[in-house]
Amino acid sequence: MTLPAAAHGVSGKHRVPHYRAFVFSFADADVAVRPDIGASHRRFWRHLARPGGSLRGAERVAIAATARTATAGDRGSFSPSLTDLAIRLMAEPGSVRASHVLTACDAAGEAQTVETIGIVSHLSAIDGFHRALGVDLPTLPEPEPGPPTGEVTPGLKRRRSHIPMPPGPIPVALDLVPAEARMLATLHGPHYMTFEEMDHNDFARVPGLDRAQIEHVSARISLLNKCFY
Fold it and tell me: Which of 51, 97, 113, 157 is the most exposed place for a label (fewest CB within 10 A)?
């Protein structure tokens, strides 16, 4: 597919710095940010630039660019169904319906659809964190060369989430493309709780919120976003 300029690491006349230039230190923020959050963002930037299970690095960065810039009229050059799903997930997640997910699966393939969901979901969390702090969004990384890895889990079935996944809740939603599932775990702990910490009702960050407070914030955000789950 033809990629927008941003996907090639070019913005106007200036080359986009490599992801290692972004330290995610949040030095300009008005509040202190835990180091593990910045570290998880750096890991995602490296992950985004690399080939995925079913998409090349350039395609992955282009999907991220399209999701980010949709409101500016840049809808990319992907499968229309994937483009529509990426934009909805980023800009208006409550508008996503079964038809959007199933159409993308049928048109672009289940693996590319799940990979797109992972990319946009992870990017949305990181961009949302930056906006909440009132700091500039980091520029997307330059894509790394190479074909897709082909790492896709066989034998999974479409479930009520409309994508192939094992039985279970949110943590297994991206298991069709293991690299995206691993990245979910990477971001899940610093931004919320690790999967192990979720087993403990008395979990509390020190300093920080306790389990009840974390779940209250999570439930409120899910309500506002009309979360499918």
Answer: 157
